[in-house]
Amino acid sequence: MTAFLCRTRPTICLVALVLCLGGMSGHAVDVPDPDDSPAVASPDQTPADFLDLVGRQTKARWRLLFRPPPPTPPTDRGRAALILGGLMADSFLVWQAGDAQQFRNNNQEVLSYCRMLGLGEKLMPRLMAQGKMAESSEWKELRQEIVEGHQEMIRMLREQRDDDLAVLIDMGLWLRLLEISSSVVLENGSVEARPLCIGSPTILQEIRDDYNRLSLAKHEEAVIKRFGTAIEDISTLWRGTGPSQPSEEQVVQTNEKLKEVMQVLVEKQP
Predict the structure, then answer these.
(1) Could you report how far apart the first and last alpha carbons of the chain are, in Å?
(2) Which residues pair with 12 in a beta bridge?
(3) Confidence (pLDDT) at 29
(4) How buried is 136 (Cβ within 10 angstroms: 0-12 exposed, 13-18 middle, 19+ buried)?
(5) Are 67 and 90 in contact (CB under 8 A)?
(6) Which of 18-27, 40-49, 123-132, 174-183 is predicted with the least confidence, judged by mean pLDDT?
(7) Which of 1, 27, 157, 265 is the most exposed place for a label (fewest CB within 10 A)?
(8) Could you say which DSSP state residue 35 is in?
(9) How far is residue 111's CA from residue 124's CA, in Å, rounded to a whole number?
(10) Range 139-167 average pLDDT
(11) 155 Cβ contact list (under 8 Å, min separation 6)
(12) How many angstroms separate the CA atoms of 263 and 257, rounded?
């Protein structure tokens, strides 16, 4: 994703290309600059950095946020890419929890979805190595390896001209991260930590921009439309909110919308 590749090196540089597709207007979210907020993520942070920040600002109980494994990879490549992005977010979540077995289990799911997208054989050695690092408690080394593995995945997709899939993986990753952060803030966060529900206004805007960069064909797909609606609803919910003003109701509604849209991915499709 263009916006995400700079946040996750090379998760796609900070060029916000707004195409005004579907219901996404493309104009900037009218929210305060992240520098003015007491607890917001920097746009150039990796997913690992972001969860570090969440952990510092809250009393995060990471293991309570583990999820059941997703369904068998669907034939719908767009939906599969979104699920894979969520699994990549779970890799960073499990790293925070330091759970070696859960990390290996999650990596097996990552591999299954990589195979569905034609990346399995190329990424399998790296994913297997990551599992061994977790088993050996090489957590410091594993952290950087997960970051680089995500970057390699995006690079491979772009090299095979699957730009939409690269964007969707990063959308799935960051929306799952925001689901995690909003859940933690809701249960264990202070008022000052509430802005982390959207990471930062810049991150939320970049998610909107990247949604707008998807091809017209992708915008016509039902699951992708649901994500676009959820992103716009959350953007509207936070529009005009001052740096110290997010209410508990905003946190609750943001978390509910994120949970709902992520649940769509694992439900049986008609």
Answers:
(1) 28
(2) 5
(3) 39
(4) exposed
(5) yes
(6) 18-27
(7) 27
(8) G
(9) 7
(10) 95
(11) 10
(12) 10
pLDDT band at 244 (very low <50, low <70, confident <90, very high): low
Asked whether 212 and 24 are in contact (CB, 8 A), the reply is yes
This prediction has a pTM of: 0.84
Residue 76 tokens read as 């719908």
Question: What mean pLDDT, rounded, does the chain reach?
Answer: 85
Contact by Cβ (8 Å): 38, 195: yes
Helix or strand run (H / E) with residue 158: helix 139-159
Tokens of 150: 């995500």
How confident is the model over 92-138, as pLDDT tens digits? 999 999 999 999 999 999 999 999 999 999 999 999 999 999 999 99
What pairs with residue 58 in β-bridges?
A: 189
Nearest to 15 by CA among 2, 32, 28, 25: 2
Compute CA 267 distance to the chain's CA centroid, rounded to the nearest angstrom. 19
Q: Is 249:41 a contact under the CB 8 Å cutoff?
A: no
- CA–CA separation, 237 vs 256, rounded Å? 12
Distance CA 42, CA 55 (A): 15
Q: Is 58 helix (H, G, I), strand (E, B) or coil?
A: strand
In which residue are the tokens 């969520």 written?
86
